[in-house]
What does this fold into?
Amino acid sequence: MQVLPVMVMGAFIPGLRRRYTLLEYISALLLVIGLILFTLADAHSSPDFSVVGVLMVVSALVLDAFVGNFQEAIFTINPATSQALMFNSFSLISIM
It folds into this structure.
């Protein structure tokens, strides 16, 4: 499900501006459709969706697509940032 938002967001992040071919978009769309059909095949009851829950899931997808692409753009522009990030992450984990 996350493939399409990541691809769309990657096309709009400055410093990254990825270009995908039509075949890649079609492949991602078919993957998402297959996952939806696979998930719906197991649904026996009709779920009761909350508007707040749907908004939370949509915002999580959009923000996750933005953060991943934004980090990649930062690491592309400044490769030293990735080393500092790894050092800080390992330091924080070792303290815990």
Residues 51-77 form the longest helix (27 residues).
